[in-house]
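Dear colleagues,

As part of the handover before I leave the project, I'm documenting each prediction I ran so the next person doesn't have to rerun anything. This entry is a single chain, and its sequence is reproduced below.
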Amino acid sequence: MASAALELMGFFLGLLGMLGTLVATVLPYWQISAHIGSNIVTAVANMRGLWMECVYQSTGAFQCETYNSMLALPSDLQASRALMVISLVLSVLAIAVAVPGMQCTICMDGTGAVKSRVAGAGGGLFLAAGFLALIPVAWTTHEVVQTFYQPALPASMKFEIGECLYVGLASALISMLGGGLLCVSCCDEQDGGRGRRPGGGYPYPIGGGMAGTGLRTTSQTYRNPTLQAGSRGQTLLRSTSGSSQLSTHGVQGTKKPTAAGYDITGYV
């Protein structure tokens, strides 16, 4: 049975992973020009991202230009865009679904296993979001490494792994870890959701059934401090059955409670 602390940890890890995925999606530091060979000393550094290409000069000038046409982009870049955006959308949906299903919230309280399933669904969405974000990051990393070691390619056209790829990889793994922790809450379904807080209502002490009568008695003790000493400690015995109510003295073999004072229900 998952604890509330475990669910909170999973939720915040998923939220952190979503923020990291957003940063990796927006910033252009996916590929950075490599300073090797004849290109070891240069005054210009090129950077490429999913949405723009930037140039940094040694004078401090930083210029970026967005890609003008989406259809003219390579197919791998278009797929990376789509996967990162879908990952962000799934992360937002995971947050919206996981919040009502967590034990620390009062939404859907008293529904038992349904609340556990909702938290597990949010964890599954976090897992899917992390996996979708991992695909373009790994894909781009493999392409950069493969291109870097091509001997026929000029040094000025080779790129290295940018910071956004590291951030995207870490964010994807964190999202998957947070989703896995939230999915553990589905184990509450095995015990019928007893790990969840019960619904509304006041816990009254219920007595055992009477032998041979098939009746279940519920006894409560009330005490009124304003009454006189002769009438203090009055008791009330209520017997309930499936079809009718019996009076206090009509039930045979019923033993009146003799305890005086405050009972566990807190009534005065």
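DSSP finds four helices and eight strands in the chain. Residues 189-222, 226-263 have pLDDT under 50 and may be disordered.

All the best with the project,
I.
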